[in-house]
Amino acid sequence: LDRASEASKDDIPRVASLAMNAYMYMMLDSGTLHCDPHPGNLLRTPDGRLCILDWGLVSTLDPDLRLTLIEHVAHLVARDYAKIPSDLVKLGFVPEGGEAAALDNGVVELLTKTYSKRAEGGGFANFDVPALFEELQGLSANAGANIFIIPPYFAYIAKAFATLEGIGLAVDPNYSILNDTLPYISRRIVTDPSPRTAGALETFVFGGEK
């Protein structure tokens, strides 16, 4: 995409959206995520298809993690924040048994505000990432414990989607990952027959606990 011809530049927004949704599919469906999606590795073929090059860096997500991510996304979209502490434990961001500490010490409140801000679009221009991590460290210090951690697997996911978001923002300064991928996420939740996804669907459609 960084060497697109003049004839194909008008098609970059579509191909960028296709790339984002393809990576969402890799993460939530196939479980094999290509982790180096810089523009030089994303090729628009002459017939308008997306070709992803250089599969030397990939991450594997097991089925349980993929289902947990689907549940987490459903909770975020439905603003079912009561389930976020449990999600954070399952995803490895909060130590086992640390739900109450994360909730009582402001971690969940801070993250939900961040999620809401990110959903507005505009990428990292909308909030200060270093300040976010500094605040999380401060909350841990006040709690006297490490109540929030970054699991190793997440670094690869964050790198991939931050790069893709950058491509989207180059096309549209108000680009939003959520808006771009919500149709795929909706289909993914609706068509999966597993009981856990059925629970995510109920949350997705009817919202969180009232």
From TrEMBL:
Residues in ABC1 atypical kinase-like domain copies: 11-84
Entry-linked PANTHER family: CHAPERONE-ACTIVITY OF BC1 COMPLEX CABC1 -RELATED (PTHR10566), PROTEIN KINASE DOMAIN-CONTAINING PROTEIN (PTHR10566:SF118)
Family: Belongs to the protein kinase superfamily. ADCK protein kinase family.
InterPro entries noted in UniProt: ABC1_dom, Kinase-like_dom_sf, UbiB_kinase
Pfam families according to UniProt: ABC1 (PF03109)
Protein's organism: Phaeocystis antarctica
Protein's name in the database: ABC1 atypical kinase-like domain-containing protein
Signal sequence bounds: none
